[in-house]
Write a structure and sequence with these properties.
heterodimer; A: about 110 residues; mainly beta; five-stranded antiparallel sheet; B: seven-stranded mixed sheet; about 50% strand
Amino acid sequence: DQQVKQNSPSLSVQEGRISILNCDYTNSMFDYFLWYKKYPAEGPTFLISISSIKDKNEDGRFTVFLNKSAKHLSLHIVPSQPGDSAVYFCAAKLGNTGNQFYFGTGTSLTVIP
Amino acid sequence: DSGVTQTPKHLITATGQRVTLRCSPRSGDLSVYWYQQSLDQGLQFLIQYYNGEERAKGNILERFSAQQFPDLHSELNLSSLELGDSALYFCASSVAKTGDHTEAFFGQGTRLTVV
């Protein structure tokens, strides 16, 4: 049962434009959400996170938005750069069960120069 | 460098065999997680250990087992291997206790190929 879903396997964006990656979840008990970035042949690296008590968190070019009523979060990258080309995983955490992380299937972002 | 070390990086073995994947967490991290990533799939949670004890179990096959040792390193044992077990296996670690909001840090993964 996939509790975290990323319905877009891939996304292409022109350099300098905005990239929007989406993620939906089913478990309303998730209390912390994260985005990871993964390059080929490397492990995922943490990018940005948001607590369930917030609806927005910003870090430089990266902003994560959380809509709890819709059980939806998104990652905005502005402006997109070629080095942002990677697979992005959305993850959610159930804090009261020992910090188990649930991951989506990933979205492959290609930023075209 | 995430500080999480996984060995070996690559492993090729035959069907029916048994292998052990090793993970050294970041210094001070008490939680270790194992994930499997098959071709074109997301990260499937296998199992979590916290300070030596099993904390949570995901979609881990009965042929697979794991443990976390007193020095906090962890091993994932895969036995009676099948072709479908070919995948990237990631270990991650986290300092967090239950309820803490911290991220997990991933190792570079072990690519297992079963032939």
